[in-house]
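hi!! sorry for the late reply, been swamped w classes. u asked for the two structures so here they r. pasted raw, havent cleaned anything up. first the sequence of the first protein and right below it the tokens
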Amino acid sequence: MWFRQRHGLQRFLQFPNKRQYHTPKPLLEDLTQRGFIQDVSRRDLLEQAIESRRQTVYVGVDPTARSLHIGHLIPLLCLLHFQLRGHGIVPLIGGATGRVGDPSGRLVERQLAEKEQIEANVVSLTQSIQQFFRNALSYATTRLTLPQDATTAEPRIVSNLEWHESFNLLDFLQQVGVHARVNTMLNRDSVRSRLSSQQGLSFTEFTYQLLQAYDFYHLHKHFGCTIQIGGSDQWGNIVAGLELIGKKDVNNNDLEQNPVNAFGITTPLLTTSTGEKFGKSAGNAVWLDSNLTSVFDFYQYFLKVTDADVPKYLHLFTLMSSEEIAEVLAVHDSAPEKRVAQHRLAAEVTEMVHTKSGVKQATVMTNLLFGSQYKDLKAEEVISAFNEDPRLVKTTIQAILTTPIAKLAAKHGLVGSNSAARNLVASRGLYLNGIAIQDAQRCASEDDLIDSGVLIIRAGKDKMMVLAATE
């Protein structure tokens, strides 16, 4: 294989030639083996429908924040796999349902958000989803030779406020409420768990399942949508939609006897091997928006994945085949300390979300922060990687060459004072381009400049700055 003929981490991380996306596996089987599937409705009929004709699939996103985070990757990548097999996809933002709050998976009632905040989040999320699919489709075309029926156009993103905003209460009760049975609604897991809690369940939350059920019906009727995908806590809401479609379309309560062309899929709640909820880091989401989570920190999140989790994440968050993943893991297992699988995972996911330029930026910063071999770096790449980062300091070439490195470190805030810098030099803790400085009066020379343009000064293990020479 390609990487057995090459040696070293950097060469190993070069991506292979494109492969055919079509595999002997049916799509639902492939998604199951990758770890995307927890529950499906009428699996045999669903698999037959997927393989025999084009389906339209939707996933809902709550506008509780202005950006996607990596917890959204599971359902969105599920949509991407459907799209790459030629199916239609509809990312739906809950511009209306976000005002109500979904009780699913929550022990207490969600605090209702301000209307203006939800509207702003819908606009921002629309852009975030558009950018995700734009970048993900570009990533896919560099990895795969897609089948002719693949749909690579950016999907249309809709908000359910489009149809709920003009839907008055009386009409809703006549068209939706009349088909709902309270005893069935009470048996939903999301409702039962809250009814037994101390806080209970508000009427607003109780009706949420009907709003989402109508979303599925509306998309089924007007968009030809046949499949809804949601997290594992959405199963009750998805079933409510299937029941509403069945009752309104065929006037028959028994879906088994008179099935409709509509199905539900749930994805598992993904946790790490230590039980931590995926998408959270010390209680904070890892955002896909680089203004909220830097490309470097995004890359580092996946680089720090444990050995126990990396096989699962390679299957879920990349388009690598099972065979590729097995070979990467074999190389990884032969030298776990090199974290080959984590480097590949981080590079793949970062390119999918932030493009190749994002990978370049993140790897340059990683090499500078955690590596010691700087001779092959390009000054332009270093400056670009640290653009708008406070650790990048631009100063004149004269100041760099005539001011002792210890004083430069103090002047630009890498250390607290000149005396602290001298103490670091004495303890061999101040480094120039990865080499400890032995003389507090040492100045840099032109030969020290990396690619004639930058110096890397490090204080201890974790603090560093990049000095970029200007005229």
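now the second protein. again sequence first, tokens right under
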Amino acid sequence: MLVLLSMSCHAQLSSTFYDESCPDALTAIRTSIIITNRGSVRGYEVIDYAKSEVEKICPGVVSCADIVAVIARDAFVAVGSPSWTVKLERRDSTTASPSLASSDLPSFREGLEKLVPKFASDEFFM
């Protein structure tokens, strides 16, 4: 039983996870970044807007954790940085902890070489 539980906690992430369940999710997120950045909106507003747009097309399918990971990649690409493959299938927490949520946030001063590994693994979102 313990083996099965430990296996489910470390799911393999996949860049194609939403290809069938919500094929337009990544496009909706990318479009959201373009729309909100034109209005100089930053931070949580971008995430909220992207989540609302994704919920319109696929209610209850795409996790906020995956949306944040995709936004991080697409925001860098929007300003001319190279792209990378985002692995998906993170699950949102069922409990909220403001202190835990803000304890390990990446700094806006960190360069791409430090940010990519944080968003490339599922450890950032666990």
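hope this helps!! also noticed smth abt the second:
Residues 64-78 form the longest helix (15 residues).
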